[in-house]
Amino acid sequence: MARNVVISGGGTGIGLAAARAFAADGDQVLLLGRRAEVLEKASVPGALTYAADLSDPHAVRGVARFVADELGTVDVLVNNAGGSGRLEPEADTEDPLEVVAHNWTVNFRLNVLTSVLLTEALRDRLASPGGRVLFLSSIAAYRGSGSGAYAAAKAALHPYAFDLARELGPRGITVNVVAPGYVEDTEFFGGPMDPARRDQRIAETSTGRAGTPGDIAQTLHWLASPGAGHITAQVIQVNGGAERGH
Known about the structure:
Blueprint: E1 4-8, H1 13-23, E2 28-33, H2 36-41, E3 48-51, H3 57-70, E4 76-79, H4 96-122, E5 132-136, H5 140-143, H6 149-168, E6 174-180, H7 195-203, H8 213-223, E7 234-238
Parallel strand pairs: 1-2, 1-4, 2-3, 4-5, 5-6, 6-7
Helix pairs in contact: 1-8, 3-4, 4-6
Family: Belongs to the short-chain dehydrogenases/reductases (SDR) family.
Protein name: Oxidoreductase
Domain Ketoreductase: 3-205
């Protein structure tokens, strides 16, 4: 039976790959993102789109109203929106502490607030039983990210997901987290990666290759399936073994 699937950050990369995987099953997919033009170009059969800044409570209320009118019930919610802040305006200051405050605020807004606000806005519409809530974390939550801000923001999703799993479990709803490693063909790095850095990241894996959006999408698809109905409050790492070292 077709399900209603809501995917934030659904216009590119992992979100788009996940949308295509669910749409291939005949599911009704709603793509969310800040850039209307990107959502409109996404090639997902039959998908609905809605442009909104998911870190803005007012905008998220608009999403909730749209979902109520167009979908009613949400079977699968994929919280994929996020990023390291590379695509955001830099701090308009030279004060080092203000720069730190700006970077940390941006990362928590992009990665935590977007997920929490959307989930809280739609939690009463989650299918009971059978609903699925999924969050995108990162290998950085385990290994750090260089600045700490992005890694800390992704790590913050874990306890929220665990709390949510306990709260929603009695309704027959599962909540899980997927933590990718290095994934190519996304906008995460803001452009092509330096070849030496790419080689170094691939060398950290046991599989000898970079991840793809499809790798992550298929993991999300499986966690949303009936076969994963007794899996909840888990963080599934998809990084070719890089988190363990090679």
